[in-house]
Specification:
single chain; alpha+beta; GMP Synthetase, Chain A, domain 3; 2 domains; three-stranded antiparallel β-sheet; 4 helices; 5 strands; 21% strand
Amino acid sequence: MTMSSECVVPTRQRVLHQQYREAPHEAWIRDYAQTVAGDTSDPFHGEVEPANNAGHRWAYGIHRAVGGDHDAPNPGDLLASALAACLHSTIGMISQWLEIEVADLTVDVSAEVDVRGALRVDSSVPVGFQRMHVSVTGRVVSGGNDTASLKTLAGSAEACCVVMQTLKQGVDVRSEWRLS
């Protein structure tokens, strides 16, 4: 994540800051994905097609802890990947605003779940991930290698990471079923 003589992020985002101040409704976006109908006799495998992905599909499998083969990324892997990707890019954007050059940036995310709740083995065990751990490593090449700057970078990146804040705060999920 090297910085050029022109920092791309501030250049692109200044225009957006002004646009969203003047027209807040334009700041609302919608991300979307859907599963692709496949072999209904195999509940342990499938494909998902995210929006704006040029028709590319991602195969997924189900974890062996709930009966799957775990031979493809499972939904938990995709959730951890979403957090890792979001935080990685957010760190890159914030570091350009702060004029801190970071090299060899890696974001590792692990998520832990007790599957007894999902399998209805023990009703006292909640369904869902009970813990997630994020580890960020990298090297500051220039600008802001002091404790205060690094604290600002970390705090701002976590505060602006949409996926991290969604997971920390929770989100209203509504479902609609149309089975016939």
